[in-house]
């Protein structure tokens, strides 16, 4: 399967995403530049973490208007699988591909730690290889990962099963102690109604090798080509 | 024409920065401070526009880029230079 990893000025996890897909998972993968309009025939897109355009104005706000994002939005609307990680998640929200927004962590501190996330639905292109209720161990590292949306939106997300990943404790309960950033409903990751666009704050591309502490991140990528 | 644009977090959105600033002001004995909300201030200089046009264009800029309606409110004033 041919993947595209987008690089914006300020992206920093693009190489980890490329490594995960190519070296670890044996996929064909190309790097796409923010100025590219042509997605070069890729069958899945990853928006990596980092600080696109220096996080100026708001995280992801300027990346949204880059040439490549116009094509990614069209690709997503046509049903193409798109994964946004961390800053990529912020870009998906700013682009309107996912509802809500990500704001400053409630603690005001940057968090860099392991997180446990529970898989709430497997009906997405990036969670199909998981089991519902499965707990994945994947790291988070961000300053602005507190998910917010109005009550009506949250209700819709819950009712339609669009919450994909939730921060939980060891017992699998979504409590305050397991929530690294204050996200409403402990939301770590979301999908659109169709299930082809997924955004999450934790970094699956940093959890693809037991040497680095976890291989759980592989499942998000393999969901796309193995299911 | 100069547009002075004020962007503030929506009332319903938690503003941890404002809260931290409130706390610091209390520490400095400004106990009368009830609440601080922290936002952004932008100065947008416009070329060759009358007031009506500018009003419409700046409103559009705020909606499309400068503010995120999920989390922020905006208001602006136009000043002749």
List keywords for this structure.
heterodimer; A: alpha/beta; Rossmann fold; nine-stranded mixed beta sheet; 5 helices; 21% helix; globular; B: 81 residues; alpha+beta; Mth169, Chain: A; 35% helix
Can you put this structure into words, describing what you see?
The complex is a heterodimer of chains A (227) and B (81). Chain A is an alpha/beta fold and 227 residues long. Chain A has a single domain (2-226), classed as Rossmann fold (3-Layer(aba) Sandwich). Helices cover 21% and strands 25% of the residues of chain A. Chain A has helices at 14-24, 67-77, 87-94, 151-159, 218-226, and strands at residues 2-7, 28-33, 44-47, 82-85, 101-103, 111-119, 135-142, 146-148, 163-167, 187-191, 197-200. In chain A, the strands form 2 sheets. A 9-stranded mixed sheet of chain A has the order 2-1-3-4-11-10-9-6-7, sandwiched between helices. In chain A, strands 5-8 form a two-stranded antiparallel sheet. In chain A, strand 10 (187-191) and strand 11 form a beta hairpin. In chain A, 54% of the residues are buried. The mean pLDDT of chain A is 97. Chain B has one domain: Mth169, Chain: A. Chain B is built from 2 helices and 3 strands, in the order βαβαβ. Chain B has helices at 16-27, 51-66; strands spanning 2-9, 40-45, 72-79. In chain B, strands 2-1-3 form a 3-stranded antiparallel sheet, with helices on one face. Chain B is elongated, with a radius of gyration of 16 Å. The termini of chain B are close together. The model of chain B has no long low-confidence stretch (mean pLDDT 95). Chain A binds chain B through residues 57-58, 61, 65, 93-94, 99-101, 103-108, 146, 148-150, 182, and chain B through 9, 12-14, 16-17, 20, 65-66, 68, 70-71.
